[in-house]
Here is the input.
Amino acid sequence: MARVLSRMDYVELYAKALRQDNRHFAQQKMLIESQMKSSSQLFGRMFGGPDFKEKAREYLRKVGLI
Amino acid sequence: MAAGYTIQSGTIVLNRELTALDIFVRDFLDVLKKHSDYLVVSGYVSIATGRSRGTEDVDILVPQMSGQHFAGLFKALDDAGYWCYQGDSAPELLPYHKDMLPLRFARNGQIFPNVELTPINTTKELQFFEFNHPQKIRIDGFEFNAPPIEFEILYKELKLGSEKDLEDARHLRAFFADCISDEKLDKFTRLIKENG
Here is the structure.
């Protein structure tokens, strides 16, 4: 019976594929930029406006980042 | 089809386009480099070399600075459109830096991604070692200093050890399988264990 691939197996498989074929970088670029865009939109909606820093710091204190 | 990377005169050249995250790091380093040496470490090194995961912060080491030097860097970052999570003026932030605490900077109006700027000095032996043995990485004209790949792998495996770090290390081992030096792995393993 075939072994089920673990998350770590996928990490290694993807790295090996990427080493041989740089076209796989296109997928990675999409993932990174999609995350950045979503994050920017989300926090822009939450804290947008003239008191951005004040609201952002309140949030950052709550989540333990400052 | 091209390989994911090549090595040119000791520099790792990644064969890909810049991402928005690379551009964020490049723009920040353009300001930082005018005021300080630096080393980009941890998650961004894995992501820059193809690890397919998101990140919120980019870890950068800088030598601990004098108050005047720090004020110059803070002003340049402020002028370039970055804000600091912890405060709005150099005098307010200098105590963090003097106490070797990291400061986080993001673009104005944004929270993520951010740069976590961590001061180092000779008391931080491992960070000081990697800082003084930079590996250059280039992506589409953007070049930055990272730790030796073998050091980065071992630091993640032996010092950090979270699931995410172990996955990053596995990625680096597989992606750079053609050029990883066993001799360096042995040397850095001893170094990290001795300074652990």
